[in-house]
Amino acid sequence: MEDLNLPPIDYAALSPILILFGVACLGVLVEAFAPRRARHPVQLVLAIGGSVAALVMVVLERNTRVVTIGDAVAIDGPSLFLQGAILLLGIVSLLLIGERSLEAGGPFVAQAALTVGSEKDNRQAQGAPGNTEIYPLAVFALSGMLLFVAANDLLTMFIALEVLSLPLYLLCALARRKRLLSQEAALKYFLLGSYASAFFLFGVALLYGYAGGVNLQQINEAVAASQNSDILLYAGLALLAIGLLFKVAAAPFHVWTPDVYQGAPTPVTAFMAACTKVAGFGALLRVLYVAFEGVQWDYQPVIGTIAVLTMIVGSVLAVTQQDIKRLLAYSSIANAGYLLVGVVAQNREGVSSTLFYLVAYGFTVLAAFGVVSLVRDADGEATHLSRWAGLGRRSPLLAAIFTFLMLAFAGIPLTSGFISKFVVFGAAIDGGQSWLVVAGVVTSMIIAFPYLRVIVMMWLSEPAETTPTVSVPGWMTSAAVFIGVLATLALGVVPSPLLDLTNDASLFVR
Amino acid sequence: MEETVEYVQATGLLSSVWLLVAIPLASAAVLLLLGRRADKWGHWLGVLAVGSAFVLGLSYFISLAGMENKSVELSLWDFIAVGRFQVDFGLLFDPLSGVFVLLITGVGSLIHLYAVGYMSHDEGRRKFFAYFNLFVAAMLLLVLGNNYVMLYFGWEGVGLASYLLISFWYTKPSAATAGKKAFLMNRVGDAGLAIGIFIMFATLGTTQYVDVFNGVSGLAAGTILVLGLLLLLGAAGKSGQFPLQAWLPDAMEGPTPVSALIHAATMVTAGVYLIARSNPIFSANHTLQTVVVSVGALTLLMGCIIGAAKDDIKRVLAWSTVSQIGYMFLGVGLGGAAYALAIVHLLAHGFFKANMFLGAGSVMHGMKDQVDIRRFGGLSKYMKITWLTFMMGWLAIIGMFPFSGFFSKEPIIVAAFEREGWTAWLFGMAALLGAGLTAFYMTRLFILTFHGPKRWTEDIEHPHESPAIMTIPLILLAIGSVGAGFLLSTSVPDWLEATGGLGAQEEPHEAVLSHGVLTALSLLLTVAGAGLAYLLFRNGTAKQEQPAGVVVTAARRNLYSDTVNEAIFEKPGIFLTRALVYLDNRGIDGAVNGLAAAVGGGSGRLRRLQTGFVRSYATSMLTGALLVVAAFLAIQLGWLA
């Protein structure tokens, strides 16, 4: 265990969260005062600059291990690593969000309040510059995520959960094209998200009744003393876990995922798939490893069963998908299952392999959605799989990149996908959870099939007349895809540096 | 048996052994990246890459021969190092991987050369060579890795390349189906291998060959059995052995050079390599060895029976591959000195089977891609070189003295008779019977194709011999089919003895029949089988399928293995998928809805894509939540924990 010093407020340790929060507030002011034309560049620079500054602070604070502001926030190895990961992935997502060259006005609606199908709506679809509120919204979400993975008591965690969720609900509704789909997705996400938050909050209440406090250490001690009603403890743990499992899209709480991933503007989907996943698993790890360490043998079978169910649902349903965004959504569900395998491994390798997986998956999925946003026709993105037939003929480079990403998802060696599955399963074997590994290996064999189907479709089918064109990406999308592909390759060939880093970062302060 | 396995670090020439994998890989990358610009010369680059790998492999092989400890390890970098997990990115060059390298690059070069001619009219030739090189690189990685994770890398790589190459002729829907089937059945095997590797981690904490082999004697018998069975499942998937044999004949939908290289000479022998390499594991458990022998014996008979009923020239050859690999499994399962015999047969088979496949390709080339042997006949006059070279392959595979199959198959049959008690009779007789059946169906194939009356389709007037670029590899492989067996059977067993744990001599049991009697018996059966086929088919056969009895019908249907697979895997799989789709969003992802979205624009139609109601989502979440809470409470009350 590491030494703790408890200053009232350690501003340096909190600085990444504070910087982003400040930048987000500043972004709102920019919306109010800056002239319309200047907003986009200003907001973009502000958002990316703020994230970079926060990232720098994370790096500078890398050796900090404190619990601060009245035990509400823990800045330790896992939280710093996760914050760094969220910021890195967030910056790449912001690149995708900031792209304006793919269609006139960018991927976001100009005025979200216009009635769909009205004359004004049609006019704005022709190329009115998209709104720029997305930047402060995204930065608010990011700052919520940073707090979420560091929250050391359940109330702070709940607040962080809402801070990250509410902007996401809004972001989902802001697509320029297919607006009904987008709004439907946002509403569904909002309703179900609130529903899940209620579970979370109910769980917090029960745990307060059990432990007499909401601090994770307090709960840990109460569990160790085990003098109170276990019903409160287990019911509280169950409800709390449900709230978190919803965010990471584990079955049976995954139902929102395909609709929301499909309906949301693609850059936002990428943002959710990469960053929200990291944040959700970060919080789940902390809650399970810090607060409920004493009952790990009791929750292991339940979470393990959920992991198996999630892997099966994600991989089997991915086989039937006809839409690339839905396919990636089910793939994201299956990946949540693999991550859960690492979570229930209950050892240090479990934490470090989960951290590695999150980073590796985040980069791959960002690049994949980046590519999806490039394949377009007159109606915007062409996401139906049949439209991708013969894409290899039309634009070999793009198809080659996507092929590589699909192979990474399928866990083919020499991609990060293989290494991350390998270390997660290895940790589970070490933790004595062989049954999860068997389920994991079998489902990853199943889910390789839809990925390969996409590859075959792109390369081995004749292009149809309706095969969409591939837009020439602006530098921001190119950079995002390039970073994602590079990370996928590098982490697959020389994973050791990141593995060392995750290993060093895998101890929670208590 | 309790020898420890030791590897030495590579020095000098051998420290560049990584080039073997890197050269074909680089060539594949160049061919894929340059795109159409490389169309003119791309195929020659492909040939050059494999050819130079062969030259390199040969020089490594020679320098290995002069060494004291013949197991040379080359650690390239720490691949994964986290906690107890240590995986090297390392290579191992020892006598076993050495002979495989020579087989892969040697036969590979000839087949590459042949493919230059065979694919000359195909506009996708450059891409074909890129995949082909990719395959060679992956296959070399498979046999050169120094731990099971490396082997798994190569394993996945060859699977992928094979899938791409089968589907290469995408205009045929049957090719796409066959690719899918190969992929799925291989996945079953791959899952076995992957789980086996994780079990190694769990029990031994390592996947390095050297540590696994030295540690295996400390494992419980049950663990060794499970581990071995999982590895066997992987091997059976890759090598088309029972119960995963059905994909291999369908894989013949790919271009013929692919069938020759991947589905006859190299990739399908990866399973044999896996078992031979893992011999300390398999030798440590007698039940395990018996299972391997049974799989081999069963598959070799199945292959013969089905092969006798097929009329597609490539499929007959494919089933004969299944059956010959059955012999190899039989050999590696027998253990002890028989490991080396299996490898000898594998190498000899690589020559004569590649020869016959390329011969079949040459026949098809001259006969407008006809594959039905009922529509050939009398071709010996028109394609002299193909006929003669094919004849060498035919004589080799049926084990006629003094061709190579005689020297490689015969010792396996004898070794099968050297087991204890009644199993000697069971497996020995199976192997002997297989020899007779092989002679029958291969002779049928040979006679129907090259002799007897012409039964050609109307559009063929003058079948022509293939160009020199195709016949030269044929001639070289034919020479191999004649001579390789004798040479290999005299040299390889001694050579392989230096491989860690391989060729460790157990006192063999006295054979239940004497060696001379067995040789005479097998030759007699071979001649009888071949003679019978000659009598039945010298006057040709009906041009269409004739009604047949129970046995032949069953054989034509692959002994109903497809039906069984469908019932065991496909039906439950489809049911599971349907059930999940129904539970999940009530089937919004049905193909019908998807198609509608593809055709139409407009928000009204798109909206229909999502019919999932929030209320049903919320209900399913609530149900899940109730179940989770109930599970936790059940644990608390002690029902589940």
Task: Present the secondary structure layout.
The complex is a heterodimer of chains A (510) and B (641).
Chain A: H1 11-33, H2 36-60, E1 66-68, E2 73-75, H3 77-98, H4 119-125, H5 134-150, H6 154-172, H7 179-211, H8 216-225, H9 230-248, H10 256-263, H11 266-291, H12 296-319, H13 324-343, H14 348-372, E3 375-377, E4 380-381, H15 391-394, H16 396-409, H17 416-430, H18 434-460, E5 469-470, H19 475-493, H20 496-504
Antiparallel strand pairs in A: 1-2, 3-4, 3-5
Helix pairs in contact in A: 1-2, 1-5, 2-3, 2-5, 3-5, 3-11, 3-14, 3-19, 5-6, 5-11, 6-7, 6-11, 7-8, 7-9, 7-10, 9-11, 10-11, 10-13, 11-13, 11-14, 12-13, 12-18, 13-14, 13-17, 13-18, 14-16, 14-17, 14-19, 14-20, 16-18, 17-18, 17-19
Chain B: E1 8-9, H1 19-34, H2 42-65, E2 72-82, E3 85-93, H3 95-118, H4 125-144, H5 148-166, H6 173-204, H7 209-215, H8 221-239, H9 247-250, H10 256-265, H11 270-277, H12 279-283, H13 286-309, H14 313-334, H15 338-366, H16 384-397, H17 404-416, H18 421-450, H19 468-496, H20 515-537, H21 550-556, H22 561-583, H23 591-599, H24 603-607, H25 614-636
Parallel strand pairs in B: 1-2
Antiparallel strand pairs in B: 2-3
Helix pairs in contact in B: 1-2, 1-4, 2-3, 2-4, 3-4, 3-10, 3-15, 3-19, 4-5, 5-6, 6-8, 8-11, 8-13, 10-15, 13-14, 13-18, 13-21, 14-15, 14-17, 14-18, 15-16, 15-17, 15-19, 16-18, 16-19, 17-18, 17-19, 18-20
Question: How would you characterize this protein structure?
Answer:
Chain A: It is a multi-pass membrane protein. The complex is a heterodimer of chains A (510) and B (641). Chain A is 72% helix and 3% strand. By secondary structure, chain A is mainly alpha-helical. In chain A, helix 6 runs antiparallel to helix 11 and helix 13 (324-343) runs antiparallel to helix 14. Chain B is globular. The longest helix of chain B has 32 residues, at 173-204. Chain B has helices at residues 19-34, 42-65, 95-118, 125-144, 148-166, 173-204, 209-215, 221-239, 247-250, 256-265, 270-277, 279-283, 286-309, 313-334, 338-366, 384-397, 404-416, 421-450, 468-496, 515-537, 550-556, 561-583, 591-599, 603-607, 614-636, and strands spanning 8-9, 72-82, 85-93. At the A-B interface, helix 7, helix 9, helix 10, helix 12 and helix 14 of A face strand 2, helix 5, helix 6, helix 22 and helix 23 of B.
